[in-house]
Write a structure and sequence with these properties.
Four copies of one chain form a homotetramer. The first copy, chain A, is α/β, with parallel strands linked by helices and about 400 residues long. Chain A is about 35% helix and about 20% strand. Chains in contact: A-B, A-C, A-D, B-C, B-D, C-D. The interface between A and D is small, with 10 and 10 residues.
């Protein structure tokens, strides 16, 4: 038996549906596992694939009753909106370019939405969804996974509390190695990512650069004023960027540097961030996510351990295991859903929500992420000229 | 969206019940989450607490129908054994001293059993359960969590393949800090663990030393011939061991050294193992569980990354996420259940099972673990004299 | 006694002199210790300080005979050039702005020169010294310390051998924390470094950015085609840069990113480099200098250990201790001198020198370093516009 | 130029001689470099080898005048004792078995002695030397290298100051890999170490186990009450131990565990120590010697950096470089000599010495080290029975 007595309360479930995530899809499975980890919602409806066969098989395996396995997402939105026991929210895990239409449809039918990132292919679309969710008074979440880690939330809390003073410089990076070689036909993920027809204007910044942007913003609250980006096509024959360096200036004068790469041999999923303030610094690495390096001037370097050292109540509320029992990517993902579902449940009970209770990635963040991609591409096309972020 | 396309097959569920795990219990929650991660079994019955109130509340929150929330485990065993839709297995997550009677009851009723560790309080009881499960042809699993990690399974595979030659020396340790101070009444976990009336003959070896024994045996297959153990009561007023050092000799001549401690300030849950062979070595740390250090003579040190580097088919089959996306304690726990449930499902279809398909901790391992505790205590009482393991 | 039998040959000494390095100087002491480590040269003359008193005291403490403690470096150059037992080389360890005149004087008198970095304050001066040394057929060395580490030399060797294929991207950085607060009068080093009158056009790039440039060039041989640099004055009241980010493009098409900072709380002296090629990568950290991370596609990450793993003959020749016995900064510094003095000795015996025997930092590298500083400042003044390196 | 202004004072030299250390010897060279690092003593006499040719060549290369290159150490002791400019101390770097006779000879002639470790082959001899040095009022130093690191001295200081409370448990280890294979004739070091005729009663404990004992004693001051040791001969055909595990009990009740090994593939020179007290812990690794891990209950783990964080005045006085500029094995070795030579100089000026000024390893420590080896062998021969340390 384990040495702690930390206990999760056992809650009753709400219902959700899914668009996308048929057999052969990776990310749909991750969403379902993340939700399943806390048992706060059950999957009762879906439109899993445009292939009727895949759709049916997936529905069957997931124990969805036949009449709630829909051939078309519009039909699903209509039908579920009418049911007394209809879904409380829908998870959209389709390829990026269809996010906008699908999310719009469900919002218009009055159904809450969780959508994979990047939210849309243009920031105009993202802004439209943001406005629509607000107008309809629905809860909308964009699954930027990495902000779900308790140590990330504690980093944010420490900065809010002034632990490192005013922000001066942010250095964040996200190296991977998985596209370091020419993309063959045997890797479908690689093929569609590096194809402008499917991925749009950017591959590397679009996929992982946007995670840097979101993480840095989430932790520090720094808003980008201008940026200068160079997007590189390094591997022979590549049509979209597979490496990028971005210099930033934030409102208020802090500076930043981001690097993302998919050609970095030896890097698996190396998202990390170092934040320097007037009186200290904070460092976090996604591949070692349960720890936080905190430096205060005049004191030795401190290594904070999730579960051992005192985190804020909010960050602590998202810890499931005692210190030294590693929590990973799925727990982080689950925290996004846990917070979202709890907020939804409380909102449906007509209760008002605190900032902590609403601490899941918003469509405004999703819109900001799409804008970031657009601005990086714009700057790079001008030979890394400085571009204003809000223009 | 994520960069990999590794997909879990979506399977239909079997039914399980639980004894123990009422509200306020930690480990019951961990078992349920671990099972929930893969969605391969659903909880349909339980006897969660000896408190009628807690039992009822827990059952309600877990959506168990009223007639399958039992006041008594014997009643539960009888009733479920008779139902056509009765549970396929029971998870026993009660305090250690009741494991034996409960497990025996379910086995006698023909129900498969998963039981928390340590299996029983005496090796005689453990041997009896082992024999009973075999006689009844039931699948019995003891949840030694740490052998579920893919990197642990790969370490075992590498050794079987001869990657480091013949085993010469094993150095394993498990330091924690959580009992470094006198046990106050405010920590129930600490209180019962250090109370001989509840924990029996050993605290530190019983709780975490037995994990070392299981891990070392699982990875290397080395059987203990003799051991010399010193169990220390370090914190003032402690009645049971909180620190222990154990020297070992294995059959065939290899040697070993184990250290476990609950007074090691700065250690959260530091289970780790280093194995030295004639031509190389392997090292693994539970707090950094996705990596394996492999040394072959004449070659540079290698760091194997779960998901990036080639693991055996069996170890790979228990990976859920791409490299660099940390998998942790819950995934390891889930792998125990995943393997067990898949084996159960296949066995019920009258198919024969391979060794890999039966790769979950057996009651024989559980019995060996209890014997290990007994022998360490026996040696320590003789001033760390050498005692034969099998006598 | 130690476990290895690696033995340095014991050589007879040559004579050297020093300009600068009086009592109270740090770097003069480092140079003397570095030379002393191998006992290949003895200090016999000096002009240690413009203070007559300091000069005399230093000379006395270093056991220099009175007539060879000179009040003026010009007098020293003249006198030593005439002596039969005159110095074989001079070490110049004065503040940067006097390097040019002093080095020129000794070269003109036919005396070999070792000079601290940065070599001069303008690249024109540096080019002049380079030409002068060549014309006079004298050996000239600029003490870029960090290229003396055996692991750095092995990194260079591995790249030459094609271990990681063609270079694609270089990411190098050099964070420090020592200027993170406004410079007070109590820190003389900080005061002169951040004073444009003494440090010239750049502080951070001039001091540590130039080490990045040299290290990256030394290891990879990549020549800069263009760069875009942003030099930041982050601490209030600072007149020169204390942080800088630089994007680069090398001849042949590889890209790069450098970051140097003196406001990075928690960083002591964090020079590090990651080099990505078509088939692998190499990583090295100055604060852990005895190890090298080598990744080859399709293979696990390797950690090469200085002294344990096979390095080239040349790199191996600069190892003094067995593996696991840490060699540090002084040994790296000593390797610069060891190579230089051995080359000098051999050259004086009229022997021809191999490339490995001439493997110490040249004035051409010194000139390139000064140009790098100039170009970074030029780009930054143009708002981080791209500037050609050779214009 | 470097960023710090820490300056070593430049002192005038004293004279020393050496017995052993002819060409082909490793450790003699290390001693000379260590002394040379600070330039506080000059080598003026020697008896470097029993081979007349080697002796002459070594003397010549080291610039020793012919009449002070002695064929015999007794002759050397007599002659130097009579000279007005005779040596102030002798360094004995011969094989272990001759240490006793040589040290005795020099002490009897009134010459101060530095001797390599292990001091002698029996504790009786060591006790005799200890007494003789005291009687003659001479300074005697045994070169236990690893206690020279500033971080080790700071660990000792922190414990003295009560930073971790009362000592409860010490876990120290020293794994190496260099004897993991049968000893061939091509490795002279390995051959003599594993030969009982040359190494006496123990190889692994004698060579590296004794470093653990010295380090643990030096840092904590804990005196061994009893120990139980198992010395293993793991590699086929080995006549002496190449691996050992030792359980200890200290006076006052603290416990300990030591492990040393020469068959640990992947370990270069892995001396490390973890010390647990009532209120905290300290951890240090020789291969990363500039850092110290300090844990205080209720606070995050701290990583202390040599040169950055505040060390005691005494530890600080032995730092030569700013933080982040790695100091290594040679600097540690040099600190032993630096302290010894400074003490000698001051003593010769008839000044009294403080405890810090006498902080070099004494012959009493040397005697204790030899006793440790004897007791480990005694216990192991009794099947790891507990033996009293002082009997």
């Amino acid at each position: 038996m384990i040495e702690s007595s930390k206990t999760e309360s056992i809650g009753s479930m709400i219902n959700y549906g899914m668009v996308g995530g048929g057999e052969g899809s990776f990310i749909g499975d991750v969403h379902r596992r993340a939700i399943g980890l806390d048992g706060m919602a059950q999957l009762v409806a879906g439109c899993f694939s445009r292939s009727a066969e895949n759709n049916a098989i997936t529905g069957k395996k997931l124990n969805i009753s036949d009449e709630r396995v829909y051939a078309d997402y519009k039909e699903m939105a209509s039908a579920e909106a009418k049911r007394a026991d209809g879904i409380n929210f829908v998870s959209i895990v389709t390829p990026n370019k269809s996010h906008f239409e699908i999310a719009k449809e469900f919002l218009n039918k009055g159904i809450n939405v969780v959508c994979d990132k990047p939210l849309t292919t243009t920031s105009a679309e993202a802004d439209e969804l943001t406005a629509l969710a607000r107008e309809k008074d629905l809860l909308f979440c964009v699954t930027y996974t990495y902000t779900g880690y308790p140590a990330v939330k504690e980093a944010r809390n420490l900065i809010k509390e002034g632990a490192i003073g005013d922000i001066r410089f942010i250095n964040a990076e996200y190296p991977q190695e998985w596209l370091a070689e020419p993309t063959g036909d045997d890797n479908k993920q690689a093929a569609w990512r590096t194809d402008p027809k499917q991925s749009g204007i950017s591959n590397c910044v679009g996929d992982i650069g946007s995670h840097i942007e979101n993480l840095a913003y989430y932790i520090t609250g720094q808003e980008i004023e201008t940026l200068a980006a160079r997007l590189d096509k390094i591997v022979d024959g590549r049509l979209l960027d597979d490496n990028a360096t971005i210099m930033l200036e934030y409102k208020g004068g802090a500076k930043g540097l981001y690097w993302c790469s998919q050609i970095a041999w030896g890097s698996d999923n190396g998202l990390s961030i170092r934040i320097y303030g007037t009186t200290g610094s904070i460092e976090w690495h996604q591949e070692d996510p349960n720890y936080l390096k905190l430096v205060k001037k005049g004191s030795p370097v401190q290594i904070l351990s999730r579960g051992r050292d005192t985190f804020s109540d909010h960050a602590s509320s998202l810890i499931r295991l005692p210190s030294g029992h590693p929590e990973g990517y799925l727990e982080s993902f689950a925290n996004i859903y846990k917070t979202y579902i709890a907020a939804l449940t409380k909102k449906q009970a007509a209760a008002s929500l605190t900032a902590d209770e609403l601490d899941f990635p918003t469509p405004a963040m999703g819109a900001q992420g799409v804008r970031f991609i657009e601005k990086c591409v714009e700057s790079s096309r001008k030979n890394a000229a400085w571009v204003n972020f809000q223009d």
